[in-house]
């Protein structure tokens, strides 16, 4: 016997499975049937495309056998099967990034973790919720040797060569004592299969034994003869075996769509929305897309698992093609089934194929259309936004064709609404028609942004400002948007402040009055600033820093950032508030060392108030102490 240790993560997962409080144990049937169906999908495809496997003759099917006496349930398929390596890599290790991140997210708190399982299917291993022992006997199509994998779900498993006639997989599950009545009951198993797997494309047969009592004639009864009892083996197909997406929309109920979603998605909650489309005409295809209620855990991983499966004429082709939908829609799960693509379509063909390009384009429109529908219901859309606002922002950047449509769907935090995120349409609606600009500020911390000194003049003038606190993405994407309809996006840290109603003369006068102090501050601060100016954008604060809109490096910096490069911050412009007492007094001050101290404090406090780092915190504290000592 060859003993193997489970990979650490698998061990952890199994530990959780066997001891979890997870109430919905019956889903192990859904998971195993879904694996069986996947394996048949794969073999059907190879039968059509692989010379070596063309001669294999099988009638695809799944068999479930229940045995009350043995307290076991066996699920078999005649699909592709697994060889020794496959068994080790598929069900002894966790290869998929999704499952890995699931395990990483585990806390050891059984209750929390079992909620996690609910959010995230864990496939094969779910069988250990009900099993004392599991045997997987499998033979890979085209190979001679079969293998038996066997485990009780604690630290290790055995793997040994065995004999098996047909290719495919048999999973024998010895049920735990307490599961006796549940998964060996014909009606229970039938109900579970109908509930979760009715629209698996292949027939599922239930094999069971029934005690039959002999029919006695009247005479026999009179003679007092006892009816003979015998056990008969029976076999019944218990699912519809029609791929769900091939059914007419009108015939399908929401329940059926939702359960089908669970079989393809690794998710055990219902989807947020779905859209089913049959296209006929030049190009013929069916699509069925789902938006999960909770964003897939691997959404922000480079190695995310694509959610859309490609079929050609009901034959499964691939579930590992990231280009079926644009990456910003990577949270969408579902199916594309084309009538026109060739069966032996390769990745290269897919990427250049006109038929595929056309399907992709209209799929995007369908999904965006569905999201637009969600947006009509504010409460529902809030849930959507919480999960998917960020990928949509990526879409604004990636998808030029649909940019306008996506812009309508993105939501933003705003100064005029502290509760809800708003749309650009409502921003524009509320604003003065002459404004012709959408003002925004970007940073990491919502609170800092809301209280930034730069906001003061906008507040005073009643101009709404969008708060973009997802810096990493907003900083790159927002400048690239350019405009919403004919309104330009303007970063308030680099654009002119809104007009205050001062005449040009008045402004000139202020500039004249403060000219010499401005010069002094400038020479004190040297390279730390690119300029110093008086401003009328402030009311409460003495100073603020802004980016230079004419800085030729700024454009370049934005571009470099979008390519993921580190960019040194260029020196800001320091603006001082001529109405503020500190600035007024400073203007009359003759003491050089005080001017120096205050100049630096004006710069550092402005930076801090805007959430930036200051260069020399120690020097800042020293200056502050000097000022405090004087004040006392
Ligand atoms: P998933 O189905 O999402 O890949 P599972 O944990 O359900 O995750 O299964 C892990 C892997 O084990 C599958 O990807 C497949 O390679 C293999 N596998 C499981 N069941 C079968 C089966 N009945 N026939 C062939 N391969 C199987
Ligand atoms: Mg699976």
Strand-helix topology:
Blueprint (H helix, E strand, L loop, with lengths): L2 E3 L2 H12 L7 H23 L12 E6 L4 E6 L6 H8 L5 H9 L4 H10 L11 E9 L6 E6 L4 E7 L5 E8 L4 H4 L2 H12 L6 E10 L4 H5 L6 E9 L16 H12 L7 E7 L5 E7 L16 E5 L2 E4 L14 E6 L8 H6 L1 H22 L2 H21 L4 H7 L2 E3 L2 E6 L1 H7 L6 E6 L3 H5 L5 H5 L4 E4 L2 H11 L1 E2 L2 E5 L12 H10 L1 H11 L5 E4 L8 E4 L5 H11 L10 E4 L4 H7 L4 H18 L7 H15 L1
Parallel strand pairs: 2-8, 12-14, 17-18, 17-20, 21-23
Antiparallel strand pairs: 1-6, 2-3, 3-7, 4-5, 4-7, 5-6, 8-9, 10-11, 11-14, 12-13, 15-16, 15-18, 19-20, 22-23
Helix pairs in contact: 2-7, 11-13, 12-13, 12-17, 17-20, 19-22, 22-23
CATH class of the largest domain: Alpha Beta
Largest sheet: 9 strands, mixed
Tell me the distance between the termini. Answer: 85 Å
> Low-confidence stretches at least 5 residues in length (pLDDT < 50)?
none
- Approximate strand percentage: 15-25%
What share of residues is helical?
25-40%
Describe the protein in words.
The longest helix is centred in the first third of the chain and has 23 residues, at 27-49. Strand 4 (131-139) and strand 5 form a beta hairpin. This protein has 4 domains: 3-211 and 230-237, Heat Shock Protein 90 (2-Layer Sandwich), CATH 3.30.565; 244-374, Ribosomal Protein S5, domain 2, CATH 3.30.230.80; 387-491, 3-Layer(aba) Sandwich (Rossmann fold); 504-551 and 566-631, Heat shock protein 90, C-terminal domain (Four Helix Bundle (Hemerythrin (Met), subunit A)). The chain contains 23 helices and 23 strands. By secondary structure, the chain is an alpha+beta fold. Bound molecules: adenosine-5'-diphosphate (ADP) and magnesium ion (MG).
């Amino acid at each position: 016997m060859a003993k193997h240790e489970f990979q650490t993560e698998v061990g952890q997962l199994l530990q959780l499975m066997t001891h979890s409080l997870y109430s919905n144990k019956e889903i192990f049937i859904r998971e195993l049937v879904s694996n069986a169906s996947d394996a048949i999908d794969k073999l059907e495809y190879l039968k059509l495309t692989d010379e070596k496997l063309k001669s294999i003759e099988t009638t695809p099917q799944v068999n479930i056998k229940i045995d009350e006496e043995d307290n076991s349930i066996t699920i078999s398929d005649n699909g592709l099967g697994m060889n020794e390596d496959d068994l080790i890599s598929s069900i002894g290790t966790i290869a998929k990034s999704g499952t890995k991140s699931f395990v990483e997210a585990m806390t050891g708190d059984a209750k929390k973790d079992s909620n996690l399982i609910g959010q995230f299917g864990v496939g094969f291993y779910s069988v250990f919720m009900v099993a004392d022992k599991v045997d997987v006997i499998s033979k890979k199509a085209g190979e001679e040797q079969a293998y038996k994998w066997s485990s009780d779900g604690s630290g290790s498993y055995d793997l040994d060569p065995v004999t098996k006639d047909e290719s495919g997989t048999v999973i024998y599950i010895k049920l735990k004592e307490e599961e006796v009545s549940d998964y060996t009951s014909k009606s229970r198993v039938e109900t579970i299969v109908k509930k979760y797997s009715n629209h698996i494309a292949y027939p599922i047969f239930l094999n069971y034994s029934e005690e039959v009592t002999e029919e006695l004639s009247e005479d026999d009864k009179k003679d007092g003869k006892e009816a003979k009892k015998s056990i008969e083996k029976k076999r019944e197909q218990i699912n519809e075996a029609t791929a769900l997406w091939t059914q007419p929309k009108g015939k399908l109920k929401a329940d059926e769509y939702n359960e089908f979603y669970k079989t393809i998605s690794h998710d055990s909650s219902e989807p947020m929305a779905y859209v089913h489309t049959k296209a006929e005409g030049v190009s013929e295809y069916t699509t069925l897309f789902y938006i999960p209620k909770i964003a897939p855990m691997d959404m922000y991983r480079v190695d995310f698992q694509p959610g859309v499966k490609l079929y050609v004429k009901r034959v499964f082709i691939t579930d590992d093609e990231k280009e079926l939908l644009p990456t910003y829609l990577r949270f969408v799960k579902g199916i594309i089934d084309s009538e026109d693509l060739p069966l032996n379509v390769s990745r290269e063909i897919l990427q250049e194929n006109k038929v595929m390009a056309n399907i992709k384009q209209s799929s995007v429109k369908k999904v965006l259309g569905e999201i637009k529908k969600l947006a009509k219901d504010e409460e529902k859309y809030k849930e959507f936004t919480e999960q998917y606002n960020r990928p949509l922002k990526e879409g604004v950047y990636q998808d030029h064709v649909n940019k306008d449509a996506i812009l309508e769907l993105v939501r933003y935090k705003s100064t005029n609404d502290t509760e809800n995120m708003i749309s650009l349409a409502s921003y524009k609606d509320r604003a003065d028609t002459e404004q012709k600009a959408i003002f925004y500020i970007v940073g990491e911390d919502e609170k800092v942004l809301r209280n930034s000194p730069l906001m003061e003049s906008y507040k005073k003038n009643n101009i709404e400002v969008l708060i973009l606190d997802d810096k990493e993405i907003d900083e790159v994407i927002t400048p690239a948007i350019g405009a919403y309809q004919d309104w330009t996006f303007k970063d308030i840290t680099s654009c002119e402040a809104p007009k205050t109603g001062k005449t040009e003369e008045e402004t000139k006068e202020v500039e004249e009055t403060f000219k010499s102090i401005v010069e002094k501050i400038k020479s004190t601060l040297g390279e730390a600033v690119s300029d110093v100016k008086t401003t009328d954008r402030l009311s409460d604060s003495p100073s603020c820093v802004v980016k230079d809109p004419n800085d030729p490096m700024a454009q370049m910096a934005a571009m470099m950032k979008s390519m993921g490069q580190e960019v040194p911050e260029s020196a800001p412009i320091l603006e001082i508030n001529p109405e503020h007492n500190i600035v007024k007094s400073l203007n009359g001050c003759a003491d050089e060392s005080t001017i120096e101290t205050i100049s630096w404090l004006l710069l550092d406090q402005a930076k801090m108030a805007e959430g930036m780092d200051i260069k020399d915190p120690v020097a800042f504290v020293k200056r502050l102490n000097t000022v405090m000592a004087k004040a006392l």
